[in-house]
Amino acid sequence: MSDTLASDSWHAALHRLQRDGTPHVLATQVTSAGSTPREPGARMVITADAIFDTLGGGTFEWQTIAAARSRLAEQRYGLSLEAFSLGGRSGQCCGGFVNILLEAFPGAESHLAIFGAGHVGQEIVKLSAPLPWQLHWYDSRRDAFAGHYQQQPRLSCYPHQDAQQSVAALPEDTHALVLTHNHDEDYALVAALIERDDVASIGLIGSDSKWASFEGRLKRDGYSSEQILRVRSPIGHVHATKLSNKTPYAIALTVVTELLWLTDTPSSQENRGLDSQALRTLMTDSPTITS
Predict the structure, then answer these.
(1) Collapsing DSSP states into helix, strand and coil, what is residue 188?
(2) Which PANTHER family does UniProt cross-reference here (predicted)?
(3) What are phi and psi of 119, to 5 degrees?
(4) pLDDT tens across 173-210, in order?
(5) Residue spans in the chain of domains classed CATH 3.40.50.720
(6) Cα-based distances in Å from 231 to 20, 21, 51, 226
């Protein structure tokens, strides 16, 4: 894969990538000793196919890029430290020593598919804007999105025609909400979603009677009890009692709250940062540079 040598500064790129939910690494030179291309505080941003700004060029910069992309490929997010002896590991003639702090960000933490651009769908999209979710929004009606949401970060809008095709296009571990204007569309989507074992959660808007009808139909169509139990309906029941306020905004609030709990999974990493003693040593002791 060839690099895109982007003209954005590291801070402009960092803002845009975090806004858009693109996985990336911020590399910061935190210490230096001897002769080095740049001083502490130099930064660059690295994605899978682009680099922004520079740590001074040379072999150690490309080693930094390789280390960053290795973390992205392996989804090892968080903080890590890379040490470079420029005359040793990196083979550069300046012969100094640098430590580079790598901060790997996953971009969007969760994927949310919203089927339906009606009043509740619109409110869910608005409320989700500040959250680290990648939104995939579908509707079968012409001009359903009307261009109002095209500038929202981490949001993609799609025409929906076929349930199987739309569901097949979803990333793994997507949380899906079904709230179209048409019950037949809703049913087709629910049936397609429960056939995918890798969908994180499935929510269906509607009344208890609507779900009872869908449940009976799914059983008649041969779906197993385990598949049917994956559907959460009605959505937004974060408390034992039902909410009497049924305005689109109120429903969306309960749905987004419910999703916050569903997406709040413990981190797979034990490391919550760099070891404090090692960091103190790093920041107070300089390596001995020999000729």
Answers:
(1) helix
(2) ALDEHYDE OXIDOREDUCTASE MOLYBDENUM COFACTOR ASSEMBLY PROTEIN, XANTHINE DEHYDROGENASE SUBUNIT A-RELATED
(3) -60, -45
(4) 999 999 999 999 999 999 999 999 999 999 999 988 99
(5) 110-263
(6) 29, 27, 42, 10
Euclidean distance between CA atoms 78 and 82, whole angstroms: 13
Closest alpha carbon to 283 in 32, 34, 41: 32
Q: Which tokens hold the place of 156?
A: 């993609």
- Is CATH 3.40.50.720 the right assignment for the domain spanning 110-263? yes
Contact of 104 with 46, CB cutoff 8 Å: no
Strand, helix or coil for residue 224: coil
Report which of 250, 206, 251, 254 is spatially closest to residue 231, judged by C-alpha positions. Answer: 206
Per-residue pLDDT tens digits for 28-60:
998 887 777 788 889 999 999 999 999 887 788
> Whole-angstrom Cα distance, residue 82 to residue 101?
6
Strand partners, 159: 139
CA distance 228 to 213: 12
Amino acid present at 96: G
Q: How many CB atoms lie within 10 A of CB 81?
A: 15
pLDDT per residue as tens digits for the range 207-252 = 889 999 999 999 999 999 999 999 999 898 755 456 788 899 999 9
Length of the chain: 291
The model's pTM = 0.72
Tokens of 261: 């709990």
CA distance 199 to 80: 31
Q: Which long-range contacts (CB under 8 A, 24 or more apart) does 35-42 make?
A: 35/86, 35/94, 35/95, 35/96, 36/86, 36/94, 36/96, 36/97, 36/98, 37/61, 37/94
In this structure, what DSSP letter does residue 290 have?
-
- At residue 69, the pLDDT reads 96
d(CA 13, CA 5): 12
